Amino acid sequence: MRFSNFSLWRFFPYLVLIVFTAPLFVVLASLFGEYSENWAHLFEYVLVDYVSTTVTLVVGVSVLVFLIGTTTAWIVTNYNFLGRNVFEWALILPLAMPPYVMAYTFTGLFDPYGDANNLVRDFFQLSNETVVFPNFRNVYGAIIVFSFTLYPYVYLVCRSAFLNQSKSMKEAARILGLSQIQVFYSLALPIARPAVIGGLVLAIMETLSDFGAVDHFAIQTFTTGIFRTWYGMYDLGTAMQLASFLLLTIGILFLIERSARTRRNYTSNNSSFSPQSELKLKGLNSLIAFSVCLLPLLIGFILPILELVQWAYQSNLAFFNQKFFITAFNTLSLAICSGIICAYIALLINFSMRFAPNQAINKLSFLLSIGYVIPGLILAVGLVQLYLYLDNSILQSSKFFLTGSLVGLVLAYIIKTYASANSSIESGYERLSKSLDNSARVLGAGSWTLLRKIHMPLLKTSLFTSILLVMSDVVKELPATLILRPFNFDTLAVSTYLYAAEERMHQAAAPAIAIVVVGLIPIILLTKMIRESRVSVKNDN
């Protein structure tokens, strides 16, 4: 499909790239605009608090995520103990728990008159004024919430790294007198450093991106500052300028993560994995390993689920009303629509890069996936400004508008979740031999015929997986939905947020449980990947 020197397949990736990055450039362009008097107020009273609280949060989450992720990955990979086969996949379950949902449940658990304090008072017959568990609504509570929901990022990459490290190298270290603990922190962990850095950066970016949890805990971070500047001071320009500084920070972290990923060659040529090399633990050692792996699972998934189920039970199923089903229908409709569109955009881009290779777009392709690491709040700020411009200029004479429309919201979801869809489609294309394309061309197949009759049938599993991954992300997305949704249009995430903001925790249980259930979809896929992740045993020559 060519018009002289013009190729649709060469042009399409550039078109998508422009659409995906336009909101980010709109946000960054605000740095060169006029600064209002609100900047002086922010700088004098709250900006230092935004920075210090954000740094404290990031440092605390980084330390805990590192300790939990690396320790559990090492134990599950190298030791055989009670429950190990379950922990292998169960330690990923906290990924299905959005931080804001865990924040709501822990508030209900550990408030002065929460369920945990009430249980202790009743058990030990203490007075009602006795508070055993301290207030959870502070930065330290937020650190716990983020750490126990985001540690699977480090766990997953470290487990993959430990599985693929050379068995003979570990055996040589043991022969030289190193203990198992010394092998861990002196040999295995340094070799897996690029993977650890990549996982940590992902956890940090998720922490910086969050709005629901920090807003519920009333913590002054950059994301809450952006929201309050926009909706409290009614100053979109200053909010965009605040968002620009956070965006630049995210961009630096994104480049660090990409650099760590390119250096993630931590396996040797004779790397092998053998189940027989796992050390069998018994007695007290087995109990310790079991307890270490159970603790993050208990805090990050089991306790929040139990609290949600209790709230649902106490409401006597009253949450299954017409409003809940309308909200669920809205959410699933948006998720399915966004998933299908995003998956097929990813398919077309990967096909175009295969059918009409272009060195420039290959180097810039990483920008297509940058939306995944951009906070939904920043993306929403940029899109609102972009939509207002388009509505007041190009679309002014038409009856169609983007601001506050479902089309504008779906576009935000597509930009935000493209990386999830692309990863599945890209891995599917890596398994397709290019000899298929050459044979089809010899037989006279054009580009659309090649895509429709050969690639799409072979990529059905990848397409389905990418749709499910996008749906899971869309259901959990809160800040972008909260800002860009049409008037009186609620999703499960927005409904959960609004109920929790009004301290109506029992009503928040139903949409929160639905979000977690949908969030289990990628966990099931990851579990399958982990079971297939053991590298084949190679004979040492």
Write the layout of secondary structure elements.
Blueprint: E1 2-3, E2 6-7, H1 8-29, H2 38-78, E3 79-80, H3 84-90, H4 99-110, H5 115-124, H6 139-163, H7 167-175, H8 180-191, H9 193-209, H10 212-216, H11 222-231, H12 236-262, E4 279-280, H13 283-314, H14 322-355, H15 359-364, H16 376-392, H17 406-430, H18 434-442, H19 447-458, H20 460-476, H21 479-484, H22 492-501, H23 505-531
Parallel strand pairs: 3-4
Antiparallel strand pairs: 1-2
Q: Globular, elongated, flat, extended or rod-shaped: what is the shape?
A: globular
By DSSP, the count of extended strands is 4
| Average pLDDT taken over every residue | 84
Radius of gyration: 25 Å
User: Beta-strand percentage?
Assistant: under 5%
**Unreliable spans:** 1-6, 266-276, 533-541
Our count of helices gives 23
Largest sheet: 2 strands, antiparallel
For the record, give the distance between the C-alpha atoms at the N and C termini, rounded to a whole number. 51 Å
Give me the strand/helix succession: EEHHEHHHHHHHHHHEHHHHHHHHHHH
What is the strand arrangement across the widest sheet? 1-2
**Proportion of residues in helical segments:** over 70%
What structural category do the secondary elements indicate?
mainly alpha
